[in-house]
């Protein structure tokens, strides 16, 4: 059985990943795929419990190393329980955030550096790499404003407090944003950078273009 296709979406909070994942999933479904969708942190019963600890504002005393370890705990569980079995079964997996988020937020934002993140990835995720990463990264000022807006709205609508990351300062988000750009420059084969202040339709079109190329070339390579 050929390995499936592993696609991840990345970006700052409020970058429109959720909307784009829904549209990508609909597009894949129309083409006869039944994509497996998940998000990180979360996506498994254990991961959802880890997510609560990670995102709750009451976890204020969480040490950055603990935070990083929990992100990887969540990810290892998702790989074992959902991602690897789905890829082994030849499916398309679309994941909202993966190790690039840990590199950007913990490595960049929390200043733990890339090296420890990449090493943990090798050990705990057995080096599993996405076939394609779509990085939604408008300019910094737009990204920051969207992140702040989105989180105020989300709490008002759901009553759920997932604000711990959003109370971070601008400098934190600046480091996250810069680390994302660094990853894109380092791995241009895997990471497609979708930048600029584009409409939802324009971003969707760019995503479809990259996904079509990738799925086609993977299918031909097998
Ligand atoms: P989201 O589900 O709304 O994208 O929010 C998840 C938050 O967790 C977001 O602020 C980014 C953060 N995060 C990390 O800091 N490191 C990680 O490895 C992951 C997956 C998420």
Oligomer: single chain
Output the CATH topology: Rossmann fold
Q: What number is the mean pLDDT?
A: 90
Structure classification: alpha/beta
CATH C-level category: Alpha Beta
Helix tally equals 8
Level of helix content? 55-70%
| Low-pLDDT windows of residues | none
Could you describe the 3D structure shown?
The chain has 222 residues and is of the alpha/beta class. The chain has a single domain, classed as Rossmann fold. Helix content is 59%, strand content 12%. The chain is built from 8 helices and 5 strands. It has helices at 17-30, 45-55, 64-88, 99-109, 114-124, 140-158, 170-186, 200-221; strands at residues 5-11, 36-39, 92-96, 132-137, 191-195. It has a 5-stranded parallel beta sheet with strand order 2-3-1-4-5, sandwiched between helices. Helix 4 runs antiparallel to helix 5 (114-124). It is globular, with a radius of gyration of 17 Å. The model has no long low-confidence stretch (mean pLDDT 90). Residues 13, 39-41, 71, 97, 101-102, 105-106, 165 line the site of thymidine-5'-phosphate.
Q: In short, what is this structure?
A:
It is built from 8 helices and 5 strands, in the order βαβααβααβααβα. The protein has helices at residues 17-30, 45-55, 64-88, 99-109, 114-124, 140-158, 170-186, 200-221, and strands at 5-11, 36-39, 92-96, 132-137, 191-195.
Question: Which terms summarize this structure?
Answer:
222 residues; five-stranded parallel sheet; 8 helices; binds thymidine-5'-phosphate
């Amino acid at each position: 059985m050929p390995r499936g296709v592993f696609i991840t979406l990345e970006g700052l909070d409020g970058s429109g990943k959720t909307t784009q994942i829904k549209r990508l999933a609909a597009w894949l479904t129309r083409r006869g795929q039944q994509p497996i969708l998940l998000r990180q942190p979360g996506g498994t019963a254990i991961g959802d419990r880890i997510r609560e600890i990670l995102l709750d504002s009451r976890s204020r005393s969480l040490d950055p190393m603990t935070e990083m370890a929990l992100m990887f705990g969540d990810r290892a569980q998702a790989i074992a329980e959902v991602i690897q079995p789905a890829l082994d079964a030849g499916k398309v997996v679309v994941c909202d955030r993966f190790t690039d988020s840990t590199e950007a937020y913990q490595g960049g934002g929390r200043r733990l550096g890339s090296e420890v993140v990449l090493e943990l990835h090798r050990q705990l995720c057995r080096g599993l790499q996405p076939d394609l990463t779509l990085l939604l990264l408008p300019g910094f000022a737009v990204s920051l404003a969207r992140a702040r807006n989105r989180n105020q709205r989300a709490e008002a609508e759901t009553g759920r407090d997932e604000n711990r990351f959003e109370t971070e300062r601008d400098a934190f988000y600046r480091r996250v944003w810069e680390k994302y750009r660094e990853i894109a420059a380092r791995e241009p084969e895997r990471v497609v950078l979708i930048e600029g202040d584009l409409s939802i339709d324009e971003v969707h079109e760019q995503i479809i273009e990259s996904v079509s190329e990738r799925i086609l070339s993977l299918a031909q390579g097998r």
